[in-house]
């Protein structure tokens, strides 16, 4: 898995590693707002029954921060801050990908039975989405100017 981290006006993407408590009964991982993720968790959603050839995402958010986890199986996340792109394979339920505001993301290559859980900083709001890549790039470059 590759990681990138940028400071300044550009949104950042980084891997968050959660604690695990393991014994002969299996593994237990937990996550707490502001301790393991840098925001108050306002919403949790998950993707499942995803066809292996499906593409999800294809948008950025004005304010929303999210952390993505592969609770089961694996999938690829491609991110774009308007200047650089990177790809991250999620396959370890302990490792989440923190995606800041103003990052374009696409998810694909879901394995059979993959489950993607997302922790989100805000309730669902369609007005927070930027669903056109061209509009995303314009907005990023406005902010960087
Ligand atoms: P979308 O965010 O585009 O999915 P993805 O990025 O995973 O491909 O959402 C797909 C649809 O589900 C869209 O009609 C909005 C709806 N939706 C909700 O109603 N609530 C939610 O919390 C989310 C994430 C999506």
Helical content, roughly? under 10%
Structural class: mainly beta
What does the overall shape look like? globular
- CATH fold call: Jelly Rolls
Q: Which strand order spans the largest sheet, edge to edge or round the barrel?
A: 1-9-6-11-4
How many structural units, i.e. domains? 1
Order of helices and strands: EEEEEEEEEEEEH
Fourth-tier CATH superfamily name:
Jelly Rolls
Total number of helices: 1
> Whole-number radius of gyration?
15 Å
Give an overview of the whole structure:
The protein has one helix spanning 133-144; strands at residues 13-17, 20-23, 26-29, 43-47, 56-61, 66-72, 75-80, 85-90, 95-99, 104-108, 115-120, 129-130. With 145 residues, the protein is mainly β. The protein has one domain: Jelly Rolls. It has a 5-stranded antiparallel β-sheet with strand order 1-9-6-11-4, with no helix packed on it. It has a 5-stranded antiparallel β-sheet with strand order 8-7-10-5-12. Strands 2-3 form a two-stranded antiparallel ribbon. The chain is globular and about 55 Å long. Residues 1-9 have low confidence and may be disordered. Bound molecules: thymidine-5'-diphosphate.
In short:
With 145 residues, the protein is mainly β. The protein has one helix and twelve strands; from the N terminus they run ββββββββββββα.
């Amino acid at each position: 898995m590759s990681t990138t981290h940028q400071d300044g006006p550009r949104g950042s993407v980084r891997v968050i590693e959660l604690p695990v408590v393991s014994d002969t009964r299996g593994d237990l991982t937990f996550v707490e707002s502001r301790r393991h993720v840098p925001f108050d968790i306002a919403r949790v959603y998950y993707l499942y029954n995803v066809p292996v050839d499906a593409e999800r995402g294809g948008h950025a958010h004005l304010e929303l921060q999210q952390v993505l986890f592969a609770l089961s199986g694996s999938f690829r996340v491609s991110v774009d801050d308007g200047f650089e792109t990177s790809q991250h394979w999620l396959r370890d339920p302990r490792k989440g990908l923190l995606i800041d505001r103003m990052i374009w993301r696409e998810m694909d290559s879901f394995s059979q039975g993959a489950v993607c859980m997302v922790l989100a900083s805000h309730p669902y709001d369609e007005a927070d989405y930027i669903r056109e890549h061209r509009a995303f790039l314009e907005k990023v470059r406005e902010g960087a100017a």
